[in-house]
Design brief:
Length: 451
């Protein structure tokens, strides 16, 4: 679970006037998180997995950087600092003028425990409010729109939630919001209810006034009191510092006139499984069309000889400048090619992510798949998965995140995933399969996990 917190002081004037020192805080999960994202998270922290050519949380940083006068970003998490040090250095270089730091939690503190633990860092500079962005989501973040909405009601509320519509069945997998349609006040909130409550769901994007720290303190103190009052304590006491924003804060505050929700129709999705990375890749590439058209490939590719030639590009495609693409290859739509990847002659890739250092040999086909770092696909090989996109016939349908196995114990069809440094031989078919890192295949596989 990942979060961004933008400390955003707000004036009472019609024009938004921000404090000279604003902060963003990203709360990311610990090293045991991202289990459903395996094997892609075995060799790289899930927040750093590249989607549309950028690490996942860089899309969040980029959205936050577009908020006027943002000065500092704090990244909170339980990952060892060494795993994020290079990323932090790259972000400081990329977004000049922003101070970006990483603060490591002493244990995984839940979705709000980290906010409270580092409250002095967040409140430093005396802001009036801060953004909270759940980092395991992908979206077209309407942060400025939320800021305007919060500013108009800042005397009434402590939390503004970004909400979106879901199907009746899917809504029960999210936090459900009951809202007064005239005032936008949240009158009732339930996290993952067992029965239907509402089709309006929590997107995991918030603006919080600093008054919310009083609520955090109340929850924290109550947990400590319970811990010390119990005659037998089997735990270490660390669990008293774990606070969940959804259940410990939003549920009690709903109906008090202090929580409001802004509904958006912008694209939004969770990134829980590897299959959802392909879906997120497609939408971020689509956003590049209007905001970063320079990131999309135009057919000019760098060959092994260093010459610029044309390859066949269909739709939205991202190609890292250091990748080598043969002119006869056909890429797209919705393909991302990582650094130093090599794509051979006659290769066809569609709806896929090819990570850094991977090699796709002559005349191979890659569909709905993720090819891991340093992996190799032989000649005339077919690597194909099954997409698990939202049902286009159901309005407001969201990305499904099915379990790895169905009730019969069989592998659910999904995208094909090659872990890092996997070798796939020539002239084989790999269909709906997951291959763990450092495996060398010798034959074709279908609907299997290769351990």
């Amino acid at each position: 679970m990942y979060f961004f917190f933008l400390r955003t002081p707000i004036s009472g004037r019609t024009q938004i006037v921000l404090h000279t020192m604003l902060k963003a805080v990203i709360l990311i999960g610990g090293p045991l998180k991202g289990t459903r994202f395996r094997p892609l998270s075995l060799d790289i922290p899930k927040p750093l997995f590249p989607v549309a050519g950028l690490p996942l949380i860089q899309h969040h940083i980029e959205a936050c950087a577009n908020v006027p006068n943002l000065k500092e970003i704090l990244i909170l998490g339980y990952y060892p600092a060494s795993e994020l040090s290079q990323f932090i250095a790259d972000m400081v270089q990329e977004y000049k003028g922003l101070i970006i730091r990483y603060l490591q939690e002493f244990t995984a503190l839940g979705t709000a425990g980290g906010i409270y633990h580092f409250r002095d860092q967040i409140r430093c500079g005396n802001p009036e409010a801060f953004f909270v962005l759940n980092g395991d989501i992908c979206a077209d973040f309407p942060l400025v729109e939320m800021l305007n909405f919060h500013q108009e009601r800042k005397d009434k509320l402590v939390v503004t939630i970004m909400a979106t519509e879901a199907t009746r069945q899917q809504s029960m997998h999210y936090g459900c919001i009951v809202q007064d349609r005239e005032t936008f006040e949240v009158t009732h909130y339930v996290e993952k209810p067992s029965t239907f409550v509402s089709t309006l769901i929590n997107c995991g994007i918030y603006i919080c006034s600093v008054d919310i720290f009083q609520t955090f303190a109340s929850v924290f103190n109550a947990r400590h009191q319970e811990y010390y009052n119990e005659s037998i304590n089997n735990g270490s006491g660390k669990e008293t510092a774990i606070i969940y924003l959804e259940t410990d804060v939003l549920m009690p505050l709903a109906g008090t006139g202090r929580v409001f929700a802004l509904q958006t129709n912008n694209w939004w999705s969770q990134l829980k499984t590897a299959g959802s990375a392909i879906y997120a890749n497609r939408h971020y590439l689509e956003l590049y069309r209007s905001r970063h058209k320079d990131r999309l490939a135009q057919g000019d590719v760098k060959t092994e000889e260093g010459k610029e030639k044309k390859c066949n590009i269909i739709g939205d495609v991202y190609i890292h400048p250091t990748a080598s693409i043969h002119p006869t290859a056909t890429l797209g739509p919705n393909v991302s090619i990582g650094a130093a990847a090599m794509i051979g002659p006659g290769v066809r890739i569609r709806e896929s992510i090819v990570l850094s250092g991977a090699t796709i040999a002559d005349h191979s086909l890659v569909l709905h798949s993720v090819v891991g770092r340093g992996s190799s696909v032989g000649r005339w090989t077919r690597v194909e998965g099954t997409p698990c996109d939202p049902n286009p016939n159901k309005p407001f349908a969201k990305m499904e995140n099915p379990p790895l196995f169905n009730s019969d114990g069989r592998l659910n069809p999904s995208i094909t995933i090659l872990g890092c440094s996997v070798t796939v031989p020539s002239e084989v078919i790999l269909l709906n399969s997951i291959v763990l890192p450092y495996k060398e295949l010798t034959r074709s596989f279908k609907n299997e996990i290769i351990l």
